[in-house]
Amino acid sequence: MKRSDNEKLLFRLLLENRHRIYGYIFTLVRNRADAEDLLQDTSITLWEKFDQFDPQTDFIAWSFRVALWKVKNFQRKQGRAKVTFNEELLELIANRYENEEPRLGRRREVLQDCLEKLNHADREFILARYEPGASAQTAAEHSGRNIQAAYKALARIRKRLHTCVTQNFTPASTL
Known about the structure:
The protein is mostly helical. Helix content is 77%, strand content 0%. The chain has two domains: 1-84, Rna Polymerase Sigma Factor, Chain: A (Orthogonal Bundle), CATH 1.10.1740.10; 102-175, Arc Repressor Mutant, subunit A, CATH 1.10.10. It has seven helices and no strands. The protein starts with a helix and ends in a 7-residue tail after the last helix.
């Protein structure tokens, strides 16, 4: 494969999987700023070493391994400056996340389908509530509801989403 084809493939894979890689890193470091920095470092290393990646293998598994290596190096450098997981616990968390990620990814897909089934106003309201830094109060203000009406609407929408996800997410659909 030509280098430009490799770069296009890597770019597509990173765009498609950025949130998954970030979620994995965030699970390990529990700090948004550190996770963003580590995602950038991981992306650079993935780009530098992409000629070693076999496109017939699992990109997510490969990127998770690179990210875990980056997290371990980051924590070694942090030393005693911050509370960090020991390497054995970090491996345990990483392995658990890697095992659960396909199921969680499928669950996110089902949730996205269920969100699309909501009417426009309900979808906009629930998305406004869960924007980073948002609250029920800000969503209420955005939608023109008072706070009590907002809580009732959120409960109703969450129940509909829960029902939809439960009905559409079966063990057979996780494969």
